[in-house]
Write a sequence for this structure.
């Protein structure tokens, strides 16, 4: 580690950010001491190292949950390595936007230094250098570098922040796109500060690993940094107050990607369990410990690019990695298998009708929705899509007076839609085009929100609504593929990648269905094909899983992982 040096220049934030509203939302969630100690251990901020030669940054110190243990460790390191604490004003830099947090933490640091034997003058001088008031995201860090960045960044959605401030955040942090959370920027800025070999350790909501708004952050990590450790703590008591934030400890390093140590912490995970786990996470022992409070394993590789990161127990992640290495994705050019979504109109009350009057028959498409599939077969409710498309192009309303009259009757309502305001000349279009030939094509249909996959075969009679996803293929027998998708193996993929709804319900959206890997249809035996067809017709998940396991050539160890994983999801 190089000598401690960190020079930071403040940039004037927007006026609304200069004086924070004490009643506003700042996303403060305070971390338990043992969690802080674990993170400091994992990034390598330990007294046996010469911490006085390093720089540690805490980008959102709150009431000092991280800073006070940092001060203790730094003081102990100075004692061991013969350094004078008073000389280390640049070794620690903490940021917080709120003046009352700064005042509280500064006093706490002074008191801590006093307890450690430092004179009051030294304590106040160091606290003044270490505890600063400022917006970490809107600070020009210049050429500053850090060996460690640690903390619990704020949990605030950008839409809950004044536009002037959120625009400034987006300008400073290119990874903050869409409906991002503020902590995305803290990851980006924290990583940018790391020297080669430096580590960042955050406890933070893990939604960015699987949400669209985390795409650019995942790309940044995959291209330039290494994930070293990931501890899922959804059920652990990590914070001083109860929160539903789906937290995880993430340790990232400015280094090439190598092996990853992953942990799923249970409700019994506490200080004792973390102490048992820490030596393995630090690489001091090779064999993962076992405990009823957690499951741990080492993965040989990790994902690159902006794709979703999977969730699940370490054994599930190992099984997924094996399946993804051995089999091709469901959506595949070789088999011409494609996943898509049904039509969104932007105004179903106008475009969908159960008893259309005076509309040309050629403009009526029988429409099937999720509620029509509950029995495992399409049970058409009699609703039609009033279709303004022909072969991918909008029809000329002059050629269809019945359709034209219907749209003109509701024109004001149709024109209020965003798609119509954006394209006034084609005001009567639906949001999505109607895909030529999809109505007549056999397809598997899957409702979006379900506790387990619910594939249903449409032989080519209906067009899907936007709450349905469809799968078409030139190579697959769709009943055989339907059996695979009905199985627990398909659920394993979707459950690992999707953002779950409250109660654990899955989202069977196209982006997650594409994560399913499947055997090539030509590699499935005739007997297993028959078994998958029968299971699909009977809606027999257990039989479908048995047949799919043979097609995937899963051994007993893999099956032992599969059963509890899907039981937990259910």
């Amino acid at each position: 580690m190089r000598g401690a040096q960190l020079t930071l220049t403040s940039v004037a934030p927007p006026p609304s950010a200069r004086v924070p509203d004490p009643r506003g939302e700042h996303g403060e969630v305070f971390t338990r001491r043992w969690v802080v100690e674990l993170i400091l251990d994992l990034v390598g901020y330990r007294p046996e190292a010469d911490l006085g030669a390093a720089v540690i940054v805490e980008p959102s110190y709150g009431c000092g949950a991280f800073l006070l243990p940092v001060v203790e460790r730094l003081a102990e390191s100075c004692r061991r390595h013969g350094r004078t604490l008073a000389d280390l004003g640049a070794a620690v830099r903490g940021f917080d936007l709120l003046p009352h947090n700064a005042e509280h933490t500064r006093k706490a640091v002074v008191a801590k230094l006093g307890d450690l034997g430092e004179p009051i003058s030294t304590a106040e001088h160091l606290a003044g250098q270490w505890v600063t008031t400022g917006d970490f995201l809107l600070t020009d860090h210049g050429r500053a570098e850090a060996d460690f960045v640690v903390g619990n960044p704020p949990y605030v959605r950008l839409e809950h922040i004044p536009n002037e401030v959120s625009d400034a955040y987006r300008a400073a942090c290119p990874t903050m796109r869409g409906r991002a959370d503020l902590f995305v920027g803290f990851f980006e800025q924290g990583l940018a500060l790391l020297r080669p070999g430096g580590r960042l350790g955050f406890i933070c909501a893990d939604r960015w690993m699987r949400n669209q708004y985390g795409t650019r952050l995942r790309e940044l990590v995959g291209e330039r940094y290494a994930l070293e450790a990931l501890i899922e703590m959804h059920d652990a008591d990590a914070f001083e107050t109860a929160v539903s934030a789906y937290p995880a400890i993430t340790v990232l390093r400015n280094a090439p990607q190598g092996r990853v140590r992953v942990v799923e912490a249970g409700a019994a995970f506490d200080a004792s369990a973390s102490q048992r786990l820490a030596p393995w996470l630090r690489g001091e022992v090779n064999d993962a410990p076992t405990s009823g409070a957690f499951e741990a394993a080492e993965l040989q590789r990790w994902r690159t690019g902006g794709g979703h990161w999977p969730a699940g127990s370490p054994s599930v992640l190992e099984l997924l990695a094996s399946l993804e290495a051995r089999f091709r994705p469901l959506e595949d050019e070789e088999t011409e298998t494609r996943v898509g979504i049904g039509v969104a109109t932007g105004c179903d009350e106008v475009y969908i009708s159960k008893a259309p009057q005076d509309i040309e028959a050629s403009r009526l498409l029988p429409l099937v929705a999720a509620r029509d599939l509950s029995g495992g077969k399409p049970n058409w409710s009699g609703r039609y899509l009033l279709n303004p498309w022909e072969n991918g192009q909008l029809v000329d309303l002059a050629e269809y007076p019945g359709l034209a009259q219907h749209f003109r009757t509701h024109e004001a309502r149709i024109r209020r839609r965003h798609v119509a305001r954006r394209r006034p000349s084609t005001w009567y279009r639906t949001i999505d085009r109607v895909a030529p030939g999809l109505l007549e094509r056999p397809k598997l249909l899957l409702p979006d929100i379900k506790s387990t996959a619910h594939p249903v075969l449409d032989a080519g009679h209906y067009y899907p609504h936007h709450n349905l996803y469809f799968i078409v293929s030139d190579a697959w027998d769709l009943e055989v593929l339907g059996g695979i998708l009905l199985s627990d193996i398909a659920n394993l993929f979707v459950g690992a990648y999707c953002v779950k709804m409250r109660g654990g319900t899955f989202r069977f959206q196209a982006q997650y269905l594409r994560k399913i890997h499947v055997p090539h249809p030509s590699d499935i035996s005739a007997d297993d094909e028959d078994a998958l067809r029968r299971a699909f017709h009977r809606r027999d998940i257990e039989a479908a899983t048995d047949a799919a396991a043979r097609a995937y050539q899963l051994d007993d160890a893999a099956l032992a992982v599969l059963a509890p994983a899907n039981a937990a999801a259910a």
User: Anything to note?
Assistant: Residues 98 and 543 are 58 Å apart (CA to CA).
